[in-house]
C-alpha cells in the first residue's frame, strides 16, 4: 500500500506553476509521472504524490525533471491567473475517480498514438532505405551495362581488324597463285615447242580419248543442303553468356526480387511461409508450447503471426495477453484482454472460462498500474461469471481493502 507524500512545496506566477516533490530516498529510475490538465500523479514506491489541480494547465507545454533527489514540475497555466490554492477543495470521491479515469485513458491514448507514430516513422524509413537501395542497384546495373557495352565494342573492333587482316592475306595468296599459274603456263608453252619434232605415233597416242579423259580433273560431288536447328538459353540480360558476368547478374536479380517483395503491399513475410505456418491454430499451439518452455518472446512472435493471418480468433488475443502480462507489458495486456472480450460475444456458457481469464488478466494489469478501482471492476465481473471461485473472491477482497485504505489516507 503506497504512502501519500505531503511534504511538497509550490510557487506560482500568473502564467507558471512550480512544484517541488522530494523523492525521499527512492530511486529516480523507478518513478512514474502522470500529468493531465486537472490531475498530477507521481508514483515513486513506496510513496505516492497525487494532486487534483485548482485550474486546468497546458500539459503539452508543461514539463517534469527528476534529479538530485527531487522531482521539479514546471506547469503552464491555460489562463493567466493567481490561484488561491494548489488543489481544488471539497471535491467528491466520484469526481476524483472520474478525473483519475480520464487521466489514465488520456495517457493510454497518448501512448498508443506515440506507438503508431513510431511504427509509421519506421515504415517510412524502411521504405526510404529500400528506394535508396534500388537506386544504388540501378546505378550499379547501368555501370555494369556500360562496361559490357565497352567490352563488346572493343571485341567488335578487334574482330573487324582480324577479318581485314585475313582478307588481305587471302588476297595476297590469290595473287601469288595467279603469278605461279602464269609461270607454269609459260614453261608449258616452251616445253610444247621443243617437243613438236616428236614422232606422229607418239603424238597420236598422247592425244587418244583415253588419255584425254585421264587428264580431265575429277570434281567431288555437290554437297546436299540442310537446315540446322539452334536453340538459345533464355536469359534476362540481352548479352551473350560468354560476354556476361554471371555472378554479378545473379546477385543483382536476387536483390531486385527481395526489394520487390519488401515494397509490395502484401506482407512479403507471408509468401515464404509453409502451409503449416499459415495455419493460425498450429501457430496458437506453437505459442502455447513456447510459453510453457519459458520462451515468452518467441511465443509472442508466433501469436503475432497468427493474428496477422486471422484477427477474429479470441484465444489468440487471450494467450498473447498472458505473454504480455508475464513480460510486464501492462498496457498491451489491457489492450489484448479487451480485444478478446470484444470477440467473446455473445457471452455464453461455452466461453465463460475464456471471459474469466480475460477479466482477471486485465484486472491484474490495472492493479499493477495502481488503478485499483478498474482492477476491482474486472475481478467482480469474473466473480459474477463464477461466484464459487474462492481464489478470485479472496483477491477481490484484498483489492477492496487497498482502495478503502487509500481513501482513508486521502481524507
TrEMBL record:
One of its GO terms (cellular component) is nucleus. Residues 3-87 form the CS domain. Keywords: Cell projection, Cytoplasm, Neurogenesis, Nucleus, Repeat, TPR repeat. It holds the Pfam family CS. Residues 197-206 have a biased composition (Polar residues). Residues 178-196 have a biased composition (Basic and acidic residues). TPR repeats lie at residues 356-389. GO terms for biological process: determination of left/right symmetry; epithelial cilium movement involved in extracellular fluid movement; heart development; inner dynein arm assembly; nervous system development; outer dynein arm assembly. PROSITE patterns: CS, TPR. SUPFAM superfamilies: HSP20-like chaperones, TPR-like. The keyword Repeat applies. GO terms for molecular function: nuclear estrogen receptor binding. The keyword Cytoplasm applies. Residues 102-125, 178-206 are annotated as: Disordered. It is found in: Cell projection, Neuron projection; Dynein axonemal particle; Nucleus. This is Dynein axonemal assembly factor 4. It comes from Xenopus tropicalis. The lineage of its organism: Eukaryota, Metazoa, Chordata, Craniata, Vertebrata. The gene is dnaaf4.
Amino acid at each position: 500500500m503506497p504512502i501519500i507524500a505531503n511534504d511538497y512545496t509550490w510557487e506560482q506566477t500568473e502564467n507558471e506553476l512550480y512544484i517541488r516533490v522530494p523523492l525521499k530516498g527512492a530511486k529516480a529510475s523507478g518513478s512514474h509521472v502522470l500529468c493531465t490538465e486537472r490531475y498530477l500523479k507521481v508514483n515513486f514506491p513506496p510513496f505516492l504524490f497525487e494532486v487534483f489541480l485548482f485550474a486546468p494547465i497546458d500539459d503539452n507545454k508543461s514539463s517534469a525533471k527528476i534529479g538530485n533527489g527531487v522531482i521539479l514540475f514546471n506547469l503552464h497555466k491555460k489562463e493567466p491567473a493567481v490561484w488561491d490554492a494548489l488543489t481544488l477543495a471539497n471535491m467528491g470521491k466520484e469526481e476524483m475517480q472520474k478525473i483519475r479515469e480520464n487521466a489514465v485513458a488520456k495517457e493510454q491514448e497518448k501512448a498508443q498514438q506515440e506507438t503508431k507514430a513510431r511504427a509509421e516513422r519506421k515504415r517510412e524509413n524502411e521504405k526510404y532505405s529500400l528506394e535508396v537501395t534500388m537506386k544504388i542497384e540501378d546505378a550499379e546495373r547501368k555501370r555494369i551495362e556500360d562496361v559490357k557495352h565497352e567490352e563488346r565494342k572493343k571485341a567488335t573492333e578487334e574482330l573487324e581488324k582480324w577479318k581485314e587482316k585475313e582478307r588481305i592475306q587471302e588476297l595476297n595468296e590469290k595473287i601469288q597463285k595467279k603469278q605461279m599459274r602464269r609461270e607454269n603456263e609459260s614453261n608449258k608453252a616452251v616445253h610444247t615447242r621443243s617437243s613438236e619434232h616428236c614422232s606422229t605415233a607418239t603424238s597420236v597416242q598422247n592425244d587418244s580419248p583415253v588419255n584425254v579423259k585421264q587428264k580431265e580433273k575429277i570434281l567431288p560431288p555437290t554437297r546436299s543442303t540442310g537446315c540446322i536447328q539452334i536453340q538459345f538459353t533464355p536469359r534476362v540480360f540481352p548479352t551473350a553468356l560468354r560476354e556476361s558476368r554471371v555472378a554479378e547478374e545473379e546477385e543483382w536479380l536476387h536483390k531486385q526480387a527481395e526489394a520487390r517483395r519488401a515494397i509490395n503491399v502484401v506482407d512479403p513475410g507471408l509468401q515464404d511461409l509453409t502451409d503449416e505456418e499459415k495455419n493460425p491454430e498450429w501457430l496458437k499451439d506453437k505459442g502455447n508450447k513456447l510459453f510453457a518452455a519459458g520462451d515468452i518472446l518467441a511465443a509472442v512472435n508466433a501469436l503475432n503471426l497468427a493474428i496477422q493471418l486471422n484477427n477474429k480468433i479470441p484465444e489468440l488475443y487471450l494467450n498473447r495477453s498472458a505473454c504480455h502480462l508475464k513480460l510486464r507489458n501492462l498496457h498491451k495486456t489491457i489492450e489484448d484482454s479487451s480485444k478478446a472480450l470484444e470477440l467473446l460475444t455473445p457471452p455464453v456458457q461455452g466461453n465463460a472460462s475464456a471471459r474469466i481469464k480475460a477479466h482477471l488478466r486485465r484486472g491484474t494489469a490495472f492493479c499493477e498500474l495502481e488503478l485499483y478501482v478498474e482492477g476491482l471492476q474486472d475481478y467482480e465481473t469474473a466473480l459474477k461469471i463464477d461466484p464459487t471461485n474462492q481464489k478470485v473472491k479472496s483477491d477481490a477482497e484484498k483489492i477492496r481493502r487497498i482502495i478503502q485504505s487509500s481513501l482513508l489516507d486521502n481524507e
